Amino acid sequence: MAFKEYGDHDALGLAGLVRSKQISPRELLDEAVARTERVNPRINAVVVRHEDYAQRQIDEGLPDGPFTGVPFLLKDLELLGGTRTTFGASLYKDFVADHTGTLAQRFLKAGLTIFGKSASPEFGLMPTTECRLHGPTRNPWNTDHASGGSSGGAAAAVAARILPVAHASDGGGSIRIPASACGVFGLKPTRARNPTGPDKAEGWGGFSCGHVVSISVRDSAAMLDAVHGPELTSPYMAPAPERPFLDEVSRGSGRLRIFFTDKSPYGDAIDPEVAAAVRDVGRLLEAQGHHVEERAPVLPLDPAQVIAAIVSANTAATVQFAEKKFGRPMTSDDFEKLTLGSAHNASKASAVDYVTALQNAFQISRSVTEFFTGCDIFLSPTLCTPPIRIGEIDTMSDDLGHVAPLLRRYMPGTSMANMTGQPSMSVPLAWSSKGLPIGMMFTAHFGDEAMLFRLAGQLEQIRPWKDRRPPISA
């Protein structure tokens, strides 16, 4: 029998029902699978399914954690030993991992039952989830529109209530972009807060990190409590929290000094509805007693050029690894043309160019950090337009010149927090006149997720979003 109240609970709520024996982990898994079968054909959010793995977890006995028995999806970039991970790439469509990533190990220890993988663009490169291998992941608010990326499958699955929380990762906005596009909560943690091993010490030069997207703020906080902390091979670590992050959600935020902008960091015009939403949220914050002031950082360099150089170099390393592994050059039968084009761009650069890009990222980081000496929080639009339409970015085009201008218009501000390592979150506080979500991005000082959780907890109370559901919802 279907558990009709499943969609009314966040992950901690479901775990509480398991703990009190009102529901069993197997019943929750069955409900998540049934919901996947009901809505996934319309949104294509879950691209790898391994319910048998989750069933074995239950049969062998789940650990006693904060999320024991709660169904969960990994992003299709994360390794889980004995299961398929495709990285969104045709070459790896049948790849089965022989070991489990550190972050996935911590998800397992938290008691989550992992029944599949959520869609990602090829190697997580794009802010839309439309890989050739699996096809486009559609936005449950309007299937003509994209779900964001690169954690677009995770955000679409959570928005459609297949499950209340799912793994996501962010190298240039890939938690916050889909959270905004799909109307869910998404926090990118401080650099090195969560582990990236055992196969790599850091992702994209320290830009990338993993966490979750969720319906509720408290799920994100409790998950960070469960998985954060260094591993043996961590080259550096984030500042230790003063108290559990979950405790912060219900604490008062106090009077904050909040700077905001309703403009693109390039000075370009943004969508009028998005700009109006930022100003509306500014007034909302002011009404709560916060000091709100219009001010934005002035960047010494173009962040798009910096991140492109670093991501291209990492993509080239991925392609080169595959060429060595399979003993032949990679072609567009193996990888999308955008992936190969990014790798080709890196091949024209030198090691000196890569070091220069890292130094330029530091200069941007220093400039933004100096800006933050005057404020507690910086508010800006997560995306400068509503979610783009399916097909606007064509990763198999022979002419990829359309990509960079679109990214500049769509998500010009998200990568700054990846360069600085600061925690940053997208909060679903507005919707367009056509019913598409508009996320607000809040960024705090390095190491201060606590302040973001306190503010998010306040916003969740005064402008709740949990019961606002898209037309496609399980």
Give the secondary structure arrangement, pairings included.
Blueprint: H1 11-19, H2 25-43, E1 46-49, H3 51-60, E2 71-75, H4 102-109, E3 113-118, E4 130-131, E5 135-136, E6 138-139, E7 142-146, H5 152-159, E8 165-170, H6 176-182, E9 185-188, E10 209-214, H7 217-227, H8 245-249, E11 257-260, H9 272-287, E12 291-294, H10 303-326, H11 337-347, H12 351-371, E13 377-381, H13 403-410, H14 415-420, E14 424-431, E15 437-444, H15 449-462
Parallel strand pairs: 2-3, 11-12, 11-13
Antiparallel strand pairs: 1-3, 4-5, 6-7, 8-10, 9-10, 9-14, 13-15, 14-15
Helix pairs in contact: 2-3, 5-6, 10-11, 10-12
Helix content: 25-40%
Which residue ranges are poorly predicted, with pLDDT under 50 across at least 5 consecutive positions? Answer: none
C-alpha end-to-end distance: 15 Å
CATH topology, which one?
Amidase signature (AS) enzymes
Describe the global form: globular
Task: Count the domains.
Answer: 1
**What is the number of helices?**
15
> How much of the sequence is in beta strands?
5-15%
Supply Rg. Answer: 21 Å
* Strand neighbour order, sheet with most strands: 8-10-9-14-15-13-11-12
CATH architecture: Alpha-Beta Complex
- Tell how many strands the DSSP assignment holds: 15
Q: Return the average pLDDT rounded to an integer.
A: 97
Explain briefly what this protein structure is.
The protein contains 15 helices and 15 strands. The protein has helices spanning 11-19, 25-43, 51-60, 102-109, 152-159, 176-182, 217-227, 245-249, 272-287, 303-326, 337-347, 351-371, 403-410, 415-420, 449-462, and strands spanning 46-49, 71-75, 113-118, 130-131, 135-136, 138-139, 142-146, 165-170, 185-188, 209-214, 257-260, 291-294, 377-381, 424-431, 437-444.
